[in-house]
Amino acid sequence: MILTNPVVLSVIVMTILCLLRLNVILSLIVSAIVGGLAAGMPIGDTMGVLIGGMGGNAETALSYILLGALATAIAKTGAADILALKISKMIKGKRIILLLVISFVACLSGTVIPVHIAFIPILIPPLLLLMNKMKMDRRAAASALAFGLKAPYITIPVGYGLIYHNIIRDQMGLSGMEITTGMVWRSTWVAGLAMLTGLIIALFVYRKPREYKIIESAEPEMAASSDEVVVTGKHYVTLLAGVAALVIQLKWGSMPLGALGGLTIMLASRAVKWSDVEELMVGGIRFMGLIAFVMLVASGYAAVMRETGGVESLVDAAASMMAGSKFIAATVMILLGLVITMGIGTSFGTVPILAAIYVPLCIELGFSPSATILLIAIAAALGDAGSPASDTTLGPTAGLNADGQHDHIWDTCVPTFLCYNIPLVVFGIIGAMFF
């Protein structure tokens, strides 16, 4: 029975607990234990695998803490306030324009300026007061951010997209189907179209005004006129620190090193004081600490799921349901990817698992390489939108909940799951049938 499979059972438990508003970290731990017990693993062994597997996301967790500290330092200089003020004057009170600007910046963060979610704690909190005064539904903002974080890497072979496309190419080759990197985007444009459809749906569904408390003390003053904005030397240093963080990250491939470099420049130039270092680190933990710990526990959870052997048995059960039908096969493979990735929370890490399974099945059922690429890309990406343990949902929540008025599950995960995963499933099935 599929419902008694350790992975399926664990993901169901995790989803229910999260929807009941249990803390994401606790939900992941309890779900991992449930999955381990369902697989016959002793509870002590399950916890051992969980803790041992947490190191898989150690660099990511450290990155988020240091980036949070850098964001706090930038906010302390007032540079983020000035940026927010400029944006507020540019959009002239139009919610849709602000949402499109946010989405565009998110798109840049994964392509030409590959900082991923690092921009969110810098850009979004200063804009919250403006959003509140505009009565913008933050579910629309979460959806706009999710689109910008996800759609580019699926469809565009630049930045994180190039990494994702190369992973698909390499893993498909290892599984017996040789392709080139250029073949990936020629298939995944269908997924990009699905994401665009989801964005339009989100902007329409969450277009109505929503009331939020206006907390002046928690956010920058947005009422000042442009004449009152004074750009000082520390703001130029802040810009230099941001550029340095990006350059260091790109040169050495280390996000923590980049964030540390940016902080060093701001401290050395006295844009922020040495005595404020403790405050910066506390601010970094406050901004990004939850994300860091969730990513650590999510890595451990993924290790438990792999240890249960539930993925392999789930695939065997799914294969028996396909009955030689391409339509049924495409549907089952995409939904199978949704289940696996909802728990693991990373499309990049799920591709190797799915490619080893899907490529032989697709060859046997007569799917073309283009259809196989699309099935793998979409199945792996489904968990990024909607999974409580995905940085595509954790990042937006970190920024939008800076004043404590945005719920991770109901205001980020549920809207992005409904708006993006449903179109991705539909477009993926149809696309696989026609490629």
Automatic annotation (TrEMBL):
It comes from Anaeromicrobium sediminis. The lineage of its organism: Bacteria, Bacillati, Bacillota, Clostridia, Peptostreptococcales. It comes from the Bacteria. It is a multi-pass membrane protein. InterPro entries: AA_Transporter-Related, Na/H_Antiport_NhaC-like_C, Na_H_antiport_N. It is found in: Cell membrane. Pfam families: Na_H_antiport_2, Na_H_antiporter. Residues 146-429 form the Na+/H+ antiporter NhaC-like C-terminal domain. This is Sodium:proton antiporter. PANTHER family: AMINO ACID TRANSPORTER YUIF-RELATED. One of its GO terms (cellular component) is plasma membrane. The chain crosses the membrane at residues 12-41, 61-84, 96-124, 144-163, 184-206, 239-268, 280-304, 324-345, 357-382, 414-434. Residues 5-91 form the Putative Na+/H+ antiporter N-terminal domain. Keywords: Cell membrane, Membrane, Transmembrane, Transmembrane helix.
